[in-house]
């Protein structure tokens, strides 16, 4: 559930955010397209911070809360309104809290399954994400083509990150998994 929801949010945003920022927020096309670069930079840097936070506060807690924070960042795009600064801030937050946190989620998935079926478990989680990676951008285009407002579009995408966050927070790690991370 978490993988499918979060990957759906990621692919919908990555596929459509330049268009959404241009059409819905009035940013020029070049500025809107730069938001993808900010996603990427944040998504590369954040996992290093995430590793520390997961070891300090627990993997499921940190990943779940990051996805919940990511939903706020996604909804924040509804308030960009020609502000390049707001677009940059929400792009960095989304890149960090949703895209970058996926590295931590993958580590959790690997720990949830017993060694004998770990590859199958990770494969199924990845497969769920692939289904939504196809459907997400298609639905993103549908919303835009049907003149949904920015608040409506970003709300739908934010709900995906909310679902992912709550699913991770409800996840119970097997005894002994991520001993250092879950010691607190």
Provide a descriptive summary of the structure in words.
The model is unreliable at 178-184 (pLDDT under 50). The chain contains seven helices and no strands. It starts with a helix and ends in a 14-residue tail after the last helix. It is an all-alpha fold and 184 residues long. The longest helix has 29 residues, at 29-57. The chain has helices at 2-23, 29-57, 59-76, 84-100, 102-112, 118-145, 150-170.
Q: Using the CA coordinates, give the radius of gyration.
A: 17 Å
Largest sheet at a glance? none
Give the overall silhouette: globular
Mean pLDDT: 89
What percentage of residues falls in helices of 4 or more residues?
A: over 70%
Low-confidence sequence ranges: 178-184
Number of strands: 0
- Series of H and E elements: HHHHHHH
Structural class: mainly alpha
Topology diagram in text:
Layout: H1 2-23, H2 29-57, H3 59-76, H4 84-100, H5 102-112, H6 118-145, H7 150-170
Helix pairs in contact: 1-2, 1-6, 1-7, 2-3, 2-4, 3-4, 3-7, 5-6
